[in-house]
Design brief:
Layout (H helix, E strand, L loop, with lengths): L12 E2 L6 E6 L10 H9 L3 E6 L12 H18 L5 E3 L11 H14 L3 E5 L16 H16 L7 H5 L10 E5 L6 E4 L4 H9 L2 H7 L4 H17 L7 E8 L1
Helix pairs in contact: 1-6, 2-6, 3-4, 6-8
This protein binds zinc ion (ZN).
Zinc ion binds next to loops.
Length: 253
């Protein structure tokens, strides 16, 4: 009989703090609120500017609501949830929810936004196949894979004037100032930031997606959101000195 060795994942390093502007790029309304918004609240408290870019309006997210009726509801919920954590700029690319295609068009759209916003930090969501590192982990969605991957790529595309010369012709000069791409919800997180200052607003921020959450669960929305976000932050804290935290996999550039 072989002895099973439990592997403890390494401690998470603190996220870099020496930056002014971030751009968060995700597929759907609620992607940032499922864990990341507490970190964003903390960062905007410190005077940093954070803008959101969403590839879709999440119009395929509620079974009982036709996409045409769903899009404006989810857009409004996203704007409200952003405002709770100090984010005023929320933009939508209008790719189709559920069938976002990874490719040059998506990379160009994200690169254009990076050139406009000039962030040092770009944030996105898990671009890998599953949500947990071991075999048989919950399967991720193709939209998250497409947007996460295109965002990692676009951070470099934005700085190269020859990759999308049409953007330069539109007056969007190259921006080679992205220093990191931080992937939230990664299976292999490396860094973290304390969730303590922002957790209550993170909870309030996810609660703004009320139509979505009410369609998702029979549990009381506030109870569901509080349990979910507190649970993740606490488990992340096990690798961050016992401080409830939001984890990221940090790709330095
Ligand atoms: Zn999503």
């Amino acid at each position: 009989m072989s002895e099973k060795i439990e592997q403890t994942p390494p401690a998470l390093e603190p996220m870099p703090e020496d930056w002014r502007r971030a751009l968060a790029v995700v597929a759907h309304p609620d992607d940032l609120e499922y864990g990341c918004a507490a970190a964003i609240a903390h960062w905007t408290d410190g005077g940093r500017e954070v803008a959101y870019l969403l590839a879709t309006r999440g119009e395929a997210g509620i079974d009982t609501l036709d996409p045409a009726a769903c899009a404006p509801v989810r857009e409004a919920e996203q704007r409200a949830s952003a405002a709770v954590v100090g984010v005023e700029t929320v933009e939508f690319l209008d790719h189709r929810d559920g069938v976002i295609e990874y490719g040059i068009g998506l990379r160009r759209d994200i690169a254009a936004a990076i050139r406009r916003h000039k962030p040092e930090l770009v944030i996105t969501l898990n671009h890998r196949d599953t949500w947990s590192p071991g075999p048989g982990g919950p399967w991720n969605t193709p939209d998250h894979l497409a947007v996460g991957r295109a965002t990692l790529d676009a951070a470099a595309d934005a700085g190269n004037r020859w990759i999308f010369p049409e953007l330069t012709e539109q007056g969007l000069e190259p921006w080679d100032g992205v220093r990191w791409v931080a992937v939230a919800g990664s299976t292999t997180s490396t860094h973290a930031v304390s969730a303590e200052p922002g957790l209550e607003r993170g909870i309030e921020s996810l609660l703004c997606h009320r139509a979505y959450i009410e369609a998702l669960t029979d549990q009381d929305p506030e109870e569901y959101v509080r349990e979910f976000l507190t649970g993740i932050a606490t488990r992340t804290g096990d690798r961050f000195g016992g401080v409830p935290a939001v984890a990221f996999e940090l790709f330095a550039r």
